[in-house]
From TrEMBL:
Residues 180-245 form the WRKY domain. Pfam families: WRKY (PF03106). One of its GO terms (molecular function) is DNA-binding transcription factor activity. One of its GO terms (cellular component) is nucleus. Residues 89-171, 298-318 are annotated as: Disordered. It comes from Anisodus acutangulus. This is WRKY11. Keywords: DNA-binding, Nucleus, Transcription, Transcription regulation. Residues 134-158 have a biased composition (Basic and acidic residues). It is found in: Nucleus. The keyword DNA-binding applies.
Length: 318
DNA sequence: CGCTTTTGACCAGCGC
DNA sequence: GCGCTGGTCAAAAGCG
C-alpha cells in the first residue's frame, strides 16, 4: 500500500479491484461496457482505459474519453474524488458544506487536496458486503429489545461496551459532484429517502437515502453546494451487495440516455481510475477546480448545458 | 395496499 | 456538563 491517504481511505483493504458501487464480486468487473455508454460527441473507447494519472497528464482525448465514460453530457459535469472522512473533517470548525478539490491547474497538476467535509464520522463497521452494524441499527436493536425488561440493562451495557470496544471503521465512501438541476441523480439503484437535514451555512438541505434492496446497507447523501447551487454533491457509502436492478432488468438504456452522471458506468474504468500504488495524485476530473471558477463568466453558461458546458468546452480549444 | 416521502424527535460525537 | 451539529428513526401523510 502506498502512503496515499486516498488509497487507504478509498481503497480500504480491498485492493484495487473493488469499488463501492459494485460490491466485491470480481465477476462484476467483467461486465461488458454498454454501447450506450458511448457519447456521440465524445466517443467512449472501451479499450482505452486509462489510469488516473493518464487522465491528468494525458491528452484532451483522454479527458474527453473520461468525460464520456462518466456520461457527461449537456447539462451535467462531474468531478469525482475519493471521499476521505478524516476525523478532523468532523470538527465543528470545518464549516465547508462543499468539498472542494483543489487543482492548481486543470490537467497538469496531480495533487489534489482532499476537501474537508462537514460529515460527522460514520459509526459503522464494514463486514461482508456492506452488512454493517452501525449505531443506529444498534439502537434499533436495542429498542426492539426494549419490551424485554429483563436483561435490558445488561444488553444495553453489552451494546455500549461493544460500541466502545469497537474501533470505528470508516465505510468506504465515494463522493462526486455533478452539475445538475436534479438533486437525486438516477444511478440504476433504488433508494429510499430516510432523512433530510438542514446543512449549516447552506440554504440547501442534505438528503439521506438508503438502498432499498434487502440487506444492502449502502447509503447515499445528496446535497447542493452552498457555493454553487448548480452543483450536486453525492456521497455514496458502502458497497452494494447485489446487482444494479436496472441492469438486471435489461433496461439500462435509460441510465445512459439521461443527461446526468451515472455512477454505474463500467467498473473496469473505475478500477483503472483508482490511484495506483505509490502515486500521490488523484484525479478524477477536472471540473470543480479553480480553473473552472476562473472561467465562470459571461462567456459561459453554467446552466445552459449543451456544448456551452465550460468543463467540456474548455477541453476542446479551438 | 404497499411503498415512498416528510418531518419532528432523538441520539452520538465533538468542542468548549 | 452543555450546546451544537450530523445522522437516524419512525409515525404520519402522500402517492400510484
Amino acid at each position: 500500500m502506498s502512503d496515499n491517504p486516498f488509497y487507504h481511505d478509498y481503497m480500504g483493504t480491498e485492493g484495487i479491484n473493488t469499488f463501492p458501487f459494485f460490491g466485491e464480486n470480481p465477476s462484476n468487473y467483467d461486465q461488458p461496457i454498454p454501447n450506450n455508454m458511448q457519447n456521440p460527441h465524445h466517443q467512449f473507447v472501451p479499450s482505452s482505459y486509462m489510469t488516473l494519472t493518464e487522465c491528468l497528464h494525458g491528452s484532451m482525448d483522454h479527458y474527453n474519453t473520461l468525460s464520456s465514460a462518466f456520461g457527461m453530457s449537456c447539462s451535467s459535469s462531474v468531478v469525482v474524488y475519493p471521499h476521505v472522512d478524516h476525523q478532523d473533517s468532523t470538527k465543528k470548525s470545518s464549516v465547508h458544506a462543499t468539498p472542494e478539490p483543489v487543482l492548481d491547474s486543470p490537467l497538469g497538476e496531480t495533487s489534489v487536496e482532499i476537501p474537508p467535509t462537514p460529515n460527522s464520522s460514520i459509526s459503522s463497521t464494514s463486514n461482508e458486503a456492506g452488512g454493517d452494524i452501525d449505531s443506529s441499527k444498534m439502537k434499533k436493536h436495542m429498542q426492539e429489545k426494549g419490551g424485554q425488561e429483563e436483561g435490558d440493562d445488561k444488553s444495553k451495557k453489552e451494546c455500549k461496551a461493544k460500541k466502545k470496544g469497537e474501533k470505528k471503521q470508516k465505510e468506504q465512501r465515494f463522493a462526486f459532484m455533478t452539475k445538475s438541476e436534479i438533486d437525486n441523480l438516477e444511478d440504476g439503484y433504488r433508494w429510499r429517502k430516510y432523512g433530510q437535514k438542514a446543512v449549516k451555512n447552506s440554504n440547501f438541505p442534505r438528503n439521506y437515502y438508503r438502498c432499498t434492496t434487502q440487506k444492502c446497507s449502502v447509503k447515499k447523501r445528496v446535497e447542493r453546494s452552498y457555493e454553487d447551487p448548480s452543483i450536486v454533491i453525492t456521497t455514496y457509502e458502502g458497497q452494494h451487495n447485489h446487482h444494479c436492478p436496472a441492469t438486471l432488468r435489461g433496461n439500462s438504456s435509460f441510465l445512459y440516455s439521461s443527461s446526468h452522471f451515472m455512477p454505474n458506468f463500467p467498473p473496469q474504468l473505475f478500477a483503472q481510475m483508482l490511484p495506483p500504488n505509490n502515486q500521490q495524485n488523484l484525479l478524477i476530473s477536472s471540473a470543480y477546480n479553480n480553473n473552472y471558477h476562473q472561467h465562470q463568466g459571461p462567456e459561459y453558461s453554467l446552466f445552459g448545458g449543451g456544448t456551452d458546458d465550460p468543463w467540456i468546452q474548455k477541453q476542446e480549444p479551438s
